[in-house]
Amino acid sequence: MALLHEGQTIRETFEVERFLGEGAFAEVYRVKHRFLGRQAMKVFKRGGMTVPEIEEMLGEAIMLSRIGHPNIVRVFDANVLDTPKGLCGYYTMENVPGGSLEKFWKSHGTKFIPLETSIDLMKQACRGLSVAHRQSPPIIHRDIKPQNILVGYEAEGLRARISDFGLAKKVNPLTLLATAAGTPAFKPPEAFSNTKGDSCAADVWAIGTTLYLLLTDQLPFDLPSDLGWGSKNLFKGKITSASNINPDVNSLLDRIIAKALDVRAEKRFQNAGEMLDALDSWKPGLDKTSYKANTSHSEIAKTALGIEHSSPNEDEGEKMAFKAIELKKVGKLADAADIMEEAFNKCPDLRDKYANHVKLWRCGISM
Predict the structure, then answer these.
(1) Which residues cross the membrane (predicted)?
(2) Is 345 exposed, middle or buried (0-12, 13-18, 19+ CB in 10 A)?
């Protein structure tokens, strides 16, 4: 049974618009604040908790509110509400209509995401994560993956925001380590060792894995389908250079990825700030000494995350785009931008046609 329902009013402030998704511990809804507009509300599933237990559950919201960065999802409010399961904690945060990086990636179908777009999004993710890594002691996310990076259009262009700090943890100030947690396919070798260590360098591995996925439509290592924390004999093979799969990747970018994905934690970038510096130093362009075929298409469908890529629903996307344009005509630019971003994931061709319109609508400019 869902914790909330469409049309429900919460604390005389929020109207529930629709269900967005759920994880193991919480459900997420799009809500409309009576004064501040659309937000996303994360409601924890466990009901009937005591106030101290709720405060502990809301630790993620407290942590996010203290970090504060344009590339980390912003928290607005935290409180409790009555649900069919009893009293549950919730917090509200930015609503990002474009959804996750996973959706953005999949919306490109058989085409690679443009190289400089992938680099820009990963640089933004590093900027946000580096703020957490600079805390004393450092805060590690422990579950960086495309599903936990949100992507949406702003006036300046695409903006990435790291979300879901539910597994985030301050490391031991002496060892700079914490117990491993998160999604196994994005975890480094040390997470599967007897010590099961997690660190800033482990977050870097996850960023490197995500970047490799964006560039190649593949995960860097061939991992078993039943991968779990007890899996052994992993990461034995050498990864295929991204430049051998995507002709736009040059040797400098190959080296940055290789360092992020070094199986030896001490040889990796030690935190997101170091990886950001490397990405800032990267320049696009083919290597002068190498010849690469000119293709922008992936050889495989986007199945690397274990979910079959379904063809974009172009008809639905076109209908949503028409609705967005109608809203724009009556001056509802924020609503128009929200719907158009959702349409991009249904019909990828709309992105090239209307991305600049959305940027202007976000500025309050109608065209």
Answers:
(1) none
(2) buried
Chain center to CA of 145: 6
pTM: 0.86
Which residue bears the tokens 């919306």?
107
Q: H or E stretch including 276?
A: helix 272-281
How much is the average pLDDT of 285-296? 56
Helices (H) and strands (E) in the chain, counts: 10, 12
> What are the tokens at 293?
């075929």
Q: Which of 68-82, 194-208, 241-255, 274-288 has the highest mean pLDDT?
A: 241-255
The token pair at 103 is 């959706």
For the domain with range 101-281, which CATH number is right: 3.10.450.50, 1.10.510.10, 1.20.210.10, 1.10.10.10? 1.10.510.10
The dotted CATH code for 9-94 is 3.30.200.20
Condensed to tens digits (0 to 9), the pLDDT of residues 108-126 reads 888 999 999 999 999 999 9
Q: CATH 3.30.200.20: which residues of the chain?
A: 9-94
What does the DSSP 8-state code read for residue 172?
A: P
**CB count, 10 Å around CB of 7?**
9
